[in-house]
Structure formats: C-alpha cells, structure tokens
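#dry-run=false #mode=assembly
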Amino acid sequence: MKENLILHTCCAPCLSQCLMVLTRNEPYEKILEEMPDFEIFIFFYNPNIFSYEEYLKRKNEVIRFIDIFNKEFKLNITIFSDRYMEERKKWYNVTEKYKNEPEKGLRCSLCYEFRLLETFNLAEKYKIKNIATTLTLSPLKNTKKINEIGTKLSNIFNIKYIKSDFKKNDGFKKSIELSRKYNLYRQDFCGCEWSNKKINHFDIL
Ligand code: SF4
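#status=ok
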C-alpha cells in the first residue's frame, strides 16, 4: 500500500526533476533518506514571490506541468495551492527586517520555515504522513538548514519529514534539461523582491 506524501514546491523547473526522482524515473539513492512508494500531493505555497503576476506565472506553470506529467506517466497527482493575498502580508512581516541579509542567510531560513510550517499544517489537516520539499534542488539554497527546519517541524507535528538533497546526481542540471524538454518558464531570481536585483519599487501586495 502506498504512503501519502506532500511535496512542497517552489516552481515547475525544480518540481520536474524532484518528481522524476519521487516517481522512480530517476535514481533516488544519495538524494532521499528513504523511498517507499508514495501517493504524491503537490503543495504550491510561496507567499515569498514578488510580484503577484510572477506568483501566478509560476503557479500556472506548475499546474500546466503536472497536467503534462500526469498524462505522460499515467498518474493522478493532485495540487493544493495557497491564498497568496492573505499569506503575503504575514510572510512580509516575518522577513522584511532582514531584507539586507544575503541569500542563504537568516531571511532565507525564516522563509524556508514559513513555507514548511504551512506544509506541515496542511499535512496535519489532511492526515498526510510524509513531507518533502523541492527547495533542496537549488544550489542557491541552504540544504542543511532546510533539512534541519524540516526535522524540527517533524518532531513538533509528529509527521515524517523526508530529508533530501535533490541537487545530487546532477539534479539541478537535469532540471534545466527537463525545463527545455517541457518548455517550462524558468525565472531568473529566487522569489522575493530582495532577490530580484532588477526591481527597485516594492508594493507588498
Ligand atoms: S531569496 Fe528566496 S529563499 Fe531567500 S527570502 Fe527571498 S524568496 Fe525566500
């Protein structure tokens, strides 16, 4: 019998390679601490993304990709998503005072925790037993910190957090190849206004 899993996702390019691993279309050794057969639910929860248009672009790309992936591999993966407008202000209040921190610094740790916490809340609500995140695919993110936060929340909620490092086995490179194959939108900044060097006007909604 399959175990259920919520895979928190940040965007379609990262999701593509992580799903290849989680559905055993790519080797999982070295990447995941364990790998039973999972029934997978996707959670697109990213109130960190600036702007709303950018958020919608990434979210719609995840929906489009899952539709393609389900058809190609004869799966029935379901997507949950967040309430951006309500969550955005909360996220901003947590991170704004650390806006001058470099990427991978304290602001990012708070951002990882904010998103993983809501993933655990969702898992608790729907009695999902396992959680993983695509956040560990990017070389620009602090994998050790993400896994520490996941483990800490796992102990609080008593829901299993599957430690990962999806960038292993050339995971990031493969995500670029998959993005080409599926013609996925690949953003050139992490998500928040402070990670986007091209903008200098911030409107938090
Ligand atoms: S750089 Fe990325 S991980 Fe860090 S706070 Fe911004 S959106 Fe979050």
